[in-house]
Amino acid sequence: MPEQIQKVLGKHGRSPDELIPILQDVQAVFGYIGEDSVKVISRYLRISENQIYGVSSFYAQFRFTEPGRHGIKVCLGTACHVRGGSTLLDSLEHGLGIHCGETTEDKRFDVDRVACLGCCALSPVVQIDRDIYSRMTVNKLTELLKNYE
Amino acid sequence: MTKEKKVSIIIDNRKVEAKAGLTILQAAREAGVDIPSLCALEHLPSYGACRLCVVEVDGIRGFPTSCTTPVEEGMVIRTDTAEVRTLRQEVLKLLLSEHPASCLFCGEQDECKDFQGTIRKVGVTTGCRYCPNDSLCELQDITQKVGLTETSYPVYYRNFPVEKEDPFYDRDYNLCILCGRCVRVCNEIRLNGTLSFKQRGKQTTIGPAFARTHLEAGCEFCGACVAVCPTGALSAKVSKWSGKPDEIVETTCPYCPTGCTLDLKVKGGEVVDVSADYDSPTEHGLICVKGRFAIPEYVLSPDRLATPTVLGPEGYDLIDWDGALDLAAEKLKEAGAKGSCVVVSPDLSNEDLFAAQRFAREVIGTEAILSPLLYDLGGDLRAFVDLVLTSEPIDSVGNAKGILSIGLDTTYGFTPLGIAVKKAARKDAALMTIDDGECNLDFLSEEAFHSDPEKWPEYLDGIMKSMSSNGKKGKVPSSFFKKGERNVAIVGPGAIFSKKRKEIFEHVLSMRNDLGWKVIVCHPYTNLLGMLAMGAFPGLMPGSIKSDGVLKFKDPGAIVDLKAKFKVGYFIGEVPSEAMPQLDYIIYQNALPAPEGVKPNLNLPASLFTETPGTTINFEGRILSFNKASEPFADSRADWWIMSGIAGRIKKGALKYSSLAGIQSEIKKAVPGFEGKDKKVPRKKVVMEGKAAEKAISRKTTVEAPASFRGVPLHDHVAGMKAIEERRHK
Amino acid sequence: MNKLAKKIDSAKSKWEKLNDNREPIVYIGAASCGRAAGALDLKEGVKTFLEENKKSARIIEVGCIGPCYLEPLVDIKMPGQPRVSYNNVNAKMLGMILKSHFIDGAPHKKLAAGHFGTDDFDGIPRFFDLPMLKPQVRIVLRNCGFIDPEEIDQYLAVDGYQGFMKALKSTPEDVIAVVRQAGLRGRGGAGFPTFRKWTVCRESPGEQKYLICNADEGDPGAFMNRSLIESDPHAVLEGMLIAGYAIGASKGIVYIRAEYPLAIDRLKRAIGQMREYGLLGKNILGSDFSFEIKIKEGAGAFVCGEETALIGSIEGKRGMPKSRPPFPAISGLFQSPTIINNVETLGTLPNILRNGPDWYNRFGKEGNRGTKTFSLVGKIRRPGLIEVQLGTTLREIIFDIGGGVQKPFKAIQTGGPSGGCLSEEFLDLTVDYESLASAGSIMGSGGLIVMDEDTCIVDLAKYFLDFTQKESCGKCVPCRVGTRHILEILQKISNGEGTPDDLLALRTLGDTIKKGALCGLGQTAPNPVLTTLRYFRNEYLEHIRDHKCRATVCKSLIEYRVIKEKCTGCQSCVRVCPTGAITGPRSEPHNLDASKCIKCRSCYEICRYEAIAGDAIVIRTAERQS
């Protein structure tokens, strides 16, 4: 594990303004920011682990626990909201039995909200992994989830 | 010197000349206009979050914060218009809705204060009366200043559990108003980085990463955050319920040779708390956990010796002072010059040390003025004294290009030096650390060598060779420590108390003498320079450090047989240790009892540095004062008074001191540096006189002892120090 | 210079050949919207068709022309014929279109939406004459949908980098003067005259200066910047060169949100191409000007669209705004003079420099020169990306370009979470910085959200405050705590527990936050509430006094009912109900147990929109308990 982290670090300089790009790369490789990663980054950039945690916990992109197999992001931009985005999220939370920001017990799904995916003309929009689905309804979403193991 | 630049501004229709570069808040304060503020604090960089210090400024849109806006020529500022006042009140209402503010607006406040006494120490703080900060709280002040009498906003009680597992201070974040002072002081003044804001918006909290304890996260327990917290969110365990102090007494910390300035808080005649002085030229307020938190519990320990006692067949019996002094005199007279020794603590004041060496030489007639450091350092004492006398001031780190730290971790001690090193390493100094495990300076270093001290002389060798040969061979590339540049070597306790100490000292001396390195030594012997100046050493007379700063030093082991047995040992502020030879009779003069296993024959209760004044010399040669903050405990007496009492009973008229001034006038005559305004002892170099002792003591102290004062470990009496010691020696 | 000149020549001739095509070209709109609508599947469909029918054609993925409601768009340009556009293409339609062009040799007249030629063509209207495009003036978006965003040669062929080359020939001060004359105002939201910030930065002492492109586009509902970068990245990059040259910066940074992976890809590629062509690096085109561009990705914080927070984020810190002074133009990134410009501002610059300020002054009106892109979305017939002259009225935008609303119009929201909701009476308001501000809203980055009677205004205000609460950095008291109080009051009102005093509390809180907050996010956070209170007061009062939500949105104030007379007992709703609140045997009217109903709309949708069902399920405002 530390070698993998070192590989990521090797692509970045040692100045503090590399912190966020490093965190993004680390999360891309491991799926989350773990304690070992923070330790290694701390030595590399010469910033205390607590400060690194303080910075990464500020941004919605970073998570500190292992992600589920599939990430569901419900867009809650204004256009999506006006066309029922929050109802989608409600029913999703209800259906999977978890709240926004949590992972299902069987680690199958993460549910999260995202401010705007930029496809406003096709609202409401839901992103599962890297696929974006437009003009969603509650029923369509339920069907769609069956395709994801 | 150039005159300070000034600008003309108008505050509330009054013309004011303000120093250029000040903020409106600072300029207003200097002009006597008090703008309310919470998150701003002197010595801290400004933040602008509480929004209470808003003002109106012609030409600036809206309501800028006065703590972040610098003054400019011709600025017109209004601090007290109706709109500004209303805005402050509304903002304060919002602020208070994140804080249990029930007592602030209660109509029965006064009756409650008068008749309810204290109803505090209930688990949860739901109002001022239950809060450790009551009557000291800046929120209470601000509410009055801003003129707020009611609020209709609901209070959001965040329901955090109170954090009590860490030593020395508790944290109740339900009271936190997120002013950020603690984060700023920890990161930007202390350069420690334990505290950080976490998450954002209304979920924002403050603390270390991953819900770790502060101990795990590397907190130094310097208490800077507790001092700056405006609410009761952070409170020191020992003093949290003491309330407003009756007086503040400035003194010097006796726990190590740095000699930090401390402000003692006195309540009800007792020292209950300590705060730092950021304006002190010695350490700039950057004190460590020992000075900050380990004084009240030591001084107020329930175990303090109250009255003289003598060991009888069935334990200790009480004895009055006359009887005790008579007994001590009798035993010492009996043992005579060859059979007696005097053991002094390096933590004693100059006056006590001066009196002690007079006692030994004039009253007993012996040169056996012993102290633990003779036994700790053995044959390496000469090299040690050489390095210590010429130790550089902390500032020399500031413009160093290369810094080498050997066996030093500054988490729980030598913090002003540690912070100076961090500052330099962040700028452009190259730092290398050598330690037997991880140390707190590692993450700022270019290279961190972790190994058994066995290997350290090898590293030092490598450095020296590479410097001499311009990097052609050796471990260190030449670009690291360059000859001709300012390089500083710091010798820490890890090196001093290692089995390779001799070789390490030799290398460092060579680096200093041949390669131009500056050296700083971090050791635990508070007034070692005082011992040298006062002559509290075998074969060293008072005033041995000449006015040109040269010390002619004789090896104590060559003057006195340190392995000899004595009949009577007179311990002044020290504890008999295993290293010392056996004694038939122990006269124990100290404030706290000897630790388990040692049974002195006669206990003479001594007063402590908070109860009786004196002076000490810090590692830079500065003469600093201990000032009296409270009355001596029970029947204890000043060390010099006791010595005087015994002396007079052995040799009539000897050591006749009726006051401290008497001793000080003698010192002024004998020791250079004490007379005059400068208050600094000259230090330049050590010249070894005579041969080294033939049989050096073989004792090798390879483990650093726990932090102690006057021979007694702090953790025996200060609860929090146990956790600190455990972490230090993990 | 010569090397580039040669490349431009070859690019132009390639472009000519392309437009005078011997080989058929199939254009597929494949920006993010297109892809979300299935454009890539269509691309595969085209490839398959060509293979099977042994035909050849060039396939070009282009960006967004604008009318997203027409996605996916597939355009076909046969040799000798103009480009014909087909909209809302599905697999079946694709087959018919391709057969028509490639096999039958003619456009599919019935399905064709428009063509891009100049003259009439076979009775098919000109695309730009269609009602949603005719009133538009496409300056910033001129290339979107027409060039391949991954080909720098196509950009060069349409006079790309000409503006920059002109700038290089004059002094930086001249460039600033041109921008001043053109009257360009920052398109990120504040509308601050661009030349003024540039002048301050130019005159600030400092060896190293920075030019930052703010591509964080956090406003939910706004995607103009994304479209521009995906469809015409070089326009933005050329703008960065011009701006960098004007202020004396040698380093440029594009700060772009991580939620735009395609845009980031296109930027990276474009930057690589610039370097190849000598448009980046030391002494560009033989001048004294050196410039490098880096990309920094945002990490999911709306507040990082604010200048000082953006700078903090680039420096690797928490994105917490800082008080000003000092201003970024004097002391910004790494304490150096820094200019932050919006994507659209930068995308406009090449046109101004190329055609001159007088040309630009032909558009817009006094004090509000030029054009602005908007994302027109919501309950509108023709949602999409548009570009109009400043000074156009809202009515024109909504009804002429947008095609109006299906259900009665209620409100239009401008400026995102920092903006306001304007009611019907403002339809004749002109879109310019000052009039929007006087109505209590702001121009913002350009999101225009249209609402009809199905939108509850209290719910909308709640939505925006919820957004602000989640994105608030938490530094200053008014924003962190004040918006929380506002949100809780709105939730109370939405739950039917509001009192008339609450409306006064909302105004007081709004006022405090506007005056006391540290940054723009906080200072504008109350705008949605304050404008809705002003223009839709009755709806608030209905919620409070009558416990009625006329748009049937606020869950506590509505109930779902089965109209027994209309219910055919088809059981479609029973199958989808997640809580089993609807029960009933086949062919008999069903029962809805209100105590189990979580108001998820599944039954309503399936009854209303699926073919077999009817409209037996309705949502009514709940009966008020007396």
What does this structure look like?
- The complex is a heterotrimer of chains A (149), B (730) and C (626).
- By secondary structure, chain A is of the alpha+beta class.
- Chain A is 44% helix and 12% strand.
- A four-stranded mixed beta sheet of chain A has the order 2-1-3-4, covered by helices on one side.
- The longest helix of chain A has 12 residues, at 19-30.
- Chain A is elongated, with a radius of gyration of 18 Å.
- By secondary structure, chain B is α/β, with parallel strands linked by helices.
- Chain B starts with 5 loop residues before the first strand and ends with a helix.
- Chain B has four domains: 6-119, Ubiquitin-like (UB roll), CATH 3.10.20; 128-299, 2-Layer Sandwich (Alpha-Beta Plaits); 309-371 and 528-713, Rossmann fold; 383-521, Dimethylsulfoxide Reductase, domain 2 (3-Layer(aba) Sandwich), CATH 3.40.228.
- In chain B, a hairpin with a 6-residue loop joins strand 6 and strand 7.
- By secondary structure, chain C is an alpha/beta fold.
- Chain C has five domains: 17-129, Glutaredoxin (3-Layer(aba) Sandwich); 161-357, 3-Layer(aba) Sandwich (Rossmann fold); 366-452, Ubiquitin-like (UB roll) (Roll), CATH 3.10.20; 457-546, Up-down Bundle (de novo design (two linked rop proteins)); 555-621, Alpha-Beta Plaits (2-Layer Sandwich).
- Chain C is built from 24 helices and 20 strands.
- In chain C, a hairpin with a 2-residue loop joins strand 10 and strand 11 (368-369).
- The longest helix of chain C is centred in the N-terminal third of the chain and has 18 residues, at 2-19.
- Chain C starts with a helix and ends in a 5-residue tail after the last strand.
- Classes of the chains: A alpha+beta (149), B alpha/beta (730), C alpha/beta (626).
- Chains A and C meet through helix 2, helix 5, helix 6 and helix 7 of A and helix 2, strand 12, strand 16, helix 17 and helix 24 of C.
